[in-house]
């Protein structure tokens, strides 16, 4: 239940972050908003260092942190651009195709075995993505492909987060991420730099606050529970963002976006349900002893490195 509460909190924080990003975009380029989100995010994360002490930064996984942050930075730039140039509900809904890419990545990268039913759920999920993107029609926008790229990169980040969470503290993951992201995001921001004025300062400070809080809640949720079970819960972000888009930006959720969101949600929910079934089977079936490292019948035990991936975004 604590993991569920943290995931709902994370979804709410990320929805609010999307809103202030859109508000800030009236003056600033998405790349510059990303820099300020990371700068102020670091400011909100630094108290973690005073709370835990310098020992929080002690790690032998610095290379994994760096790789995770490079991928995450590219995903952030794509994701922020999608939030600015697409309707909010459409941009956020496409981000929930991440679990589909996580499943594929688990097979290609980690050698996991995925059976027919989950492959079917993945295929159905991609049908939902196609309903939203609608390639070859008048409703197609190239920016929707940028949102899909952000989902792919988010899948890689989700895998690395779960790998790190096996040995690293959630607060260390948050702090290291912000420390890496500030200089990484400054470089592209310099090419589009405009000094913010007026209310824009409030929006970019809010982006840092909501983004950092969402990240904190997310890492804690993944630490406490299986991401495959938490993914459908995080979908609460979609109706929150749809309401914000309607209330602040006079946006409505189109028919195709609504249908695509329903299909993607159903696909994610089934994948999570299947994961839960397999997890229960390995612990209750005397003829199917649980594998090391929490592996399931569909996901055989792997060596200590790398561990099983999550399924979020």
Automatic annotation (TrEMBL):
* Membrane topology term: Multi-pass membrane protein
Organism domain of life: Bacteria
- Transmembrane domains' residue ranges: 34-50, 62-88, 94-111, 118-136, 142-161, 173-195, 201-218, 230-249, 255-272
Pro residues bias: start-end ranges: 303-313
Q: Which Pfam families match?
A: EamA
InterPro entries membership: EamA_dom, EmrE-like
Where located?
A: Membrane
Q: Which UniProt keywords apply?
A: Membrane, Transmembrane, Transmembrane helix
**What positions does the domain EamA occupy?**
2-133, 145-267
Region listing for Disordered, in residue ranges: 281-313
For this entry, the protein name equals DMT family transporter
**Organism source for this protein?**
Coralloluteibacterium thermophilum
Q: What is the lineage of its organism?
A: Bacteria, Pseudomonadati, Pseudomonadota, Gammaproteobacteria, Lysobacterales
């Amino acid at each position: 239940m604590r993991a569920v509460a943290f995931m709902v909190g994370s979804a709410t924080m990320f929805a609010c972050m999307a809103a202030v990003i859109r508000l800030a975009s009236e003056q600033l380029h998405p790349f510059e908003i990303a820099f300020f989100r990371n700068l102020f995010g670091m400011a909100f994360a630094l108290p973690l260092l005073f709370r835990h002490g310098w020992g929080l930064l002690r790690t032998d996984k610095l290379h994994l942190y760096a790789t995770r942050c490079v991928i995450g930075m590219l995903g952030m730039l794509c994701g922020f651009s999608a939030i600015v140039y697409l309707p909010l509900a459409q941009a956020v809904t496409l981000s929930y195709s991440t679990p589909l890419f996580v499943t594929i990545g688990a097979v290609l990268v980690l050698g996991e075995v995925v059976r027919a039913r989950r492959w079917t759920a993945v295929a159905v999920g991609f049908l939902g993505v196609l309903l939203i993107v609608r390639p070859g029609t008048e409703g197609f926008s190239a920016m929707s492909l940028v949102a899909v790229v952000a989902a792919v990169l988010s899948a890689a980040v989700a895998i690395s987060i779960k790998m790190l969470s096996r040995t690293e503290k959630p607060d260390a993951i948050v702090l290291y991420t912000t420390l890496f992201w500030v200089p990484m995001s400054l470089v592209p921001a310099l090419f589009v730099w405009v000094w913010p004025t007026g209310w824009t300062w409030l929006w970019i400070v809010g982006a840092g606050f909501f983004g950092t809080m969402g990240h904190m809640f997310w890492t804690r949720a993944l630490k406490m529970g299986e991401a495959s079970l938490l993914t459908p819960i995080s979908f609460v972000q979609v109706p929150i963002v749809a309401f914000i888009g309607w209330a602040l930006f006079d946006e409505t959720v189109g028919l195709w976006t609504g249908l695509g969101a329903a299909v993607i949600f159903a696909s994610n929910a089934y994948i999570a349900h299947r994961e839960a079934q397999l997890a229960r089977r390995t612990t209750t079936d005397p003829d199917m002893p649980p594998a090391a490292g929490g592996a399931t019948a569909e996901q055989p035990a792997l060596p200590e490195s790398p561990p099983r991936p999550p399924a979020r975004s």
